[in-house]
Design a protein that fits this description.
The complex is a heterodimer of chains A (about 300) and B (about 250). Chain A is mainly alpha-helical and about 300 residues long. Chain A has a single domain, classed as MetI-like (MetI-like fold, Orthogonal Bundle), CATH 1.10.3720.10. Helices cover about 70% and strands about 5% of the residues of chain A. A two-stranded antiparallel sheet of chain A has the order 1-2. In chain A, helix 3 packs across helix 8 and helix 9 packs antiparallel against helix 10. The C terminus of chain A is likely disordered. In chain B, strands 8-9-10-3-11-12 form a 6-stranded mixed beta sheet, sandwiched between helices. In chain B, helix 3 runs parallel beside helix 5, helix 4 crosses helix 5 and helix 5 packs parallel to helix 6. The longest helix of chain B is centred in the middle third of the chain and has 14 residues. Chain B is globular. Chain B has one domain: P-loop containing nucleotide triphosphate hydrolases (Rossmann fold, 3-Layer(aba) Sandwich). In chain B, a hairpin with a 2-residue loop joins strand 1 and strand 2. The chains are: A mainly alpha (about 300), B alpha/beta (about 250).
């Protein structure tokens, strides 16, 4: 229906729309209010010397704070690693046709989501009270290795067990949601091509599920960053604990909270950027293509 | 000659509904067999039983003389392991109504995936084979497009190329044109016509009576889980002997 000149339709002249846009006075009011509030905030932050910006500057890069920061990072990375690997394993178990296997995964999730994390941290820390020695052997039979529980489960190990095993329960449900979001036809097509269930999971289903899994996992990681501060209950330390230890001595509570908050914000920002990269990686074939392709095929067929 | 497909006494139920009620069917090598019939007649289920996507309740399904999904030793049936079923499926290509392309892979990657993962073919060899197959279905230019960027007809042609990449001896088509806009049906049927001309054994569930008449060596009419009538296309489609076949054809033709 297009003629070579590019004009479309009945041949009448094209009438460009020149309308007066809708005014939005409410938006201007909102901008004004927000501007005033922002000015007030800046004013008080600058003039109220009890913020103690000099103290903030003094401690921002101090050794105890950086030590705490390092522990926060290590605990977050390692417990998320345990959580993700464990979560994928539990989610796959949960989907198993074997009722004992799926039941075991369900029980694990029920137990670890159903009890407080602080209680779990304390439990691992005081495991020695329950089992003074840990040994590897055959039930009712000989023991091969035996170690003192307090040697094996250090404070750090108790932190990782507590945070990681708890996280695995939550990650399991996130991964399961992702697996469920992938159309059954994908696994069928993979199966019809001669792939085994585990090949189909690895190559076809999981990569597609990642699109759904990544955003809540980013959430979990950012949340974990701050949850690590709970390790104070078993006497370990990280960023917030370090800041509080200092303020307990010099009574500069607010400035040291600002120091801790600053580092949490830095880490969160880095994680958010990283999440963006991961999402783009797993959005291949999805993100920019869908709406555009619809238009393309429509345009191509009419 | 060993039949390519030999189904005997196939029964299949979903819960209390019996979808297949004693199917006997033989497809010879090189034959194009079209299965027609009203929806809910069990034709798609029958097709899915051929490659064990559905487990049959009774009867025997053989492909190229080999029992599918089971092993018979000493007069006793043993279920095959998952990996053995997967091995049997390598030789049976399948094309789905809704294409089921892998959306996170380009057209070429879709075609390369099974040879790479299942057969361990080298990347270069798989790429070369994929290029040839995409040329065969007329899509060389779209090799790097994602399924979401392709029209339905193009997606189905990629799906055919993907199935062919495993060099199957039998191709199953489950209503391959039913999800397509009418003007895209022709390009898919053209590819299938070419396959039939090359001597591929094909079992095709379809509503395209023209295709069945022109390309099919045999036509099977199914209704309510049984084969009502089968024979040469001109007999079944032009001079049906059964009332049920006649009433179905009068509705679709």
């Amino acid at each position: 229906m297009t003629d070579p000149s590019g004009a479309v339709g009945s041949g009448r002249e094209r009438q460009e729309i020149q309308a007066v846009p809708v005014r939005h006075p409410g938006r201007w009011v909102a901008v004004a209010v927000l501007a005033v509030l922002a000015a007030m905030l800046v004013h008080t932050v600058v003039t109220n010397e009890r913020f103690g910006w000099d103290v903030v500057g003094q401690y921002l890069f101090s050794a105890p704070i950086l030590n705490g920061l390092r522990n926060t990072l290590i605990l977050t990375v390692l417990s998320m690693l345990i959580g993700i690997v464990g979560g994928v394993g539990l989610a796959v178990m949960r989907q198993s046709p074997n009722p004992i296997v799926s039941g075991a995964a369900a029980t694990y999730i029920w137990l670890f989501r159903g009890t407080p994390l602080i209680a779990q941290l304390l439990f691992w820390n005081f495991l020695a009270a329950l089992y003074p020695r840990l040994s590897l052997g055959i039930p009712f039979g000989p023991e091969f290795v035996s170690v003192d529980t307090n040697v094996l489960i250090t404070q750090f190990a108790a932190c990782l067990l507590g945070l990681g095993l708890n996280e695995a329960a939550y990650m399991a449900e996130i991964v399961r949601g992702g697996l469920l979001s992938v159309d059954r036809g994908q696994a069928e097509a993979a199966g019809a091509l001669g792939m085994t269930r585990s090949q189909a999971l690895r190559r076809i289903v999981l990569p597609q599920a990642m699109r759904v899994i990544v955003p809540p996992t980013g959430n979990e990681t950012i949340s974990m960053l701050k949850t690590t501060s709970l390790v104070v209950v078993i006497g370990y330390f990280e960023l917030l604990t370090s800041a509080q230890r200092i303020s307990n001595q010099n009574f500069q509570v607010i400035p040291l909270l600002i120091v801790a908050a600053f580092w949490y914000l830095v880490l969160t920002s880095l994680l958010t950027i990283g999440q963006g990269f991961v999402e783009r990686r797993y959005g291949r074939g999805f993100v920019p293509d869908r709406p555009g392709s619809r238009l393309l095929t429509k345009a191509g067929t009419t | 000659m060993t039949p390519m497909v030999e189904a005997s006494g196939i029964h299949k139920s979903f819960g209390r509904t019996e979808v297949l009620r004693g199917i006997d069917l033989v497809v010879q090598p090189g034959e194009v067999c079209c299965i027609i019939g009203p929806s809910g007649s069990g034709k798609s289920t029958l097709l899915r039983c051929v490659n064990h996507l559905e487990r049959i309740d009774a009867g025997r399904m053989r492909v190229d003389g080999k029992l599918i999904g089971y092993q018979e030793t000493g007069g006793k049936l043993h279920e095959l392991r998952e990996s053995e079923v997967a091995r049997q499926r390598r030789d049976i290509g399948m094309v789905f109504q809704r294409f089921n392309l892998f959306p996170h892979m380009t057209a070429a990657e879709n075609v390369m995936e099974a040879p790479r993962t299942v057969l361990g073919t080298s990347r270069a060899a798989a790429r070369k084979a994929a290029d040839e197959l995409l040329a065969r279905v007329g899509l060389s230019a779209r090799r790097d497009a994602y399924p979401g960027q392709l029209s339905g007809g193009q997606q189905q042609r990629v799906a055919i190329a993907r199935a062919l990449a495993m060099q199957p001896r039998l191709m199953l088509f489950d209503e391959p044109t039913s999800a397509l806009d009418p003007e895209l049906v022709g390009e898919v049927l053209d590819v299938m016509r070419g396959l039939a001309a090359d001597g591929m054994t094909m079992l095709v569930v379809t509503h395209e009576m023209g295709f069945a008449r022109e390309v099919g060596d045999s036509v099977v009419f199914m209704d309510e889980g049984v084969i009502v009538e089968e024979g040469a296309p001109r007999d079944v489609l032009s001079a049906p002997r059964h009332e049920r076949t006649r009433s179905f054809l009068s509705k679709v033709l």
